[in-house]
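Render this sequence as a predicted structure.
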Amino acid sequence: MYEYRSTAIVLDAEPVGEADTRFSLFTERFGRIVVRGKSARKITSKLTPHLQIGDVASVRIVEKNGMRIADALKERRLPHAPSDLRALNHLIHDAERDNELWNTLTGAAYHWRVVLALLGWDPAHASCSQCAKRPCAFVIGTQEFVCAAHTPARTSMETNASKLEPGAVISMG
């Protein structure tokens, strides 16, 4: 059994089975990891209050029959919208540590243009995939930049559901 400790941002949480939760975390030391929270949805769970989307928490993860979260202690809450963090969860690769992205997310200078540039999609050097005009949005599903004329009709990300719409778009306005 291996044990890991790090500070993490909760990017997403989805129910698994009757009482478990699968958490997507962006950790300072290990990058993005997906861990299981055993019985995290039970009313007596001590994990749930510390692992809400947007929380920064000190976590202890054990690797035994998969990655499981053993302990969590909330340090603070980030001002980012849960839908933004869910979208980011779809763009980050597993187990890739990124200090610049960590500093951007935990700092005050968070903006989608900066985040996309750090992830390799620099809007400053991009053009609309349909007409080569200046882009105003990024389509997550196709990973393309689009201008206002070619932005899909469904432009908002769901804020209440844990899944993104297939055509979810990040506005860079």
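Summary. Helices lie at 82-91, 99-106, 112-118. The mean pLDDT is 90.
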